[in-house]
Write the structure tokens for this entry.
Amino acid sequence: AQSVTQLGSHVSVSEGALVLLRCNYSSSVPPYLFWYVQYPNQGLQLLLKYTTGATLVKGINGFEAEFKKSETSFHLTKPSAHMSDAAEYFCAVRNYGGSQGNLIFGKGTKLSVKP
Amino acid sequence: KAGVTQTPRYLIKTRGQQVTLSCSPISGHRSVSWYQQTPGQGLQFLFEYFSETQRNKGNFPGRFSGRQFSNSRSEMNVSTLELGDSALYLCASSIGQATLNTDTQYFGPGTRLTVL
């Protein structure tokens, strides 16, 4: 069975600082991994995804994530935070059938950016 | 190309009532999945429809139901509303059946349901 753990329900950084949001997964099959972002009162927007191939994945808005199989991690990073990055971020792993559905999400990490 | 649309965006109902939410997928997408999002439980899968058939179902009571039309639009219905049904309901569409492939799921803005 697949599962996702996001370390830190709330992360605060200063504008211009490095953003690091942590995600660890558990999967009995090669995982497909996703990061979504949710702005207040909006739906989820796909930031990036890993399926196969290159382990460093680049996404929108300057974000990237690296798949590390040995660490079962898929951490999200951005070199320099911007005020507009303040949102909630969800890591997800593809599930194949079952009552948990197609995507299993972590609990989310709220990112605050201080001026 | 237009994104996933959900109507209405906001709803207020009272306990015992029923409600119907609508989701229009991206043109050409045939799969629609529904999720419930609450502060306590996070994002939980409700069900997936593909080609007008329910393909997968989450652990929700029978009060939660859905359907999909021939144009891939989907509706979900919640009967006998309870206070705990207050949540953001999100739908997501993808080209193929979500449980069988790696197509990206695109989410709508959600319907915020408040049950009083």
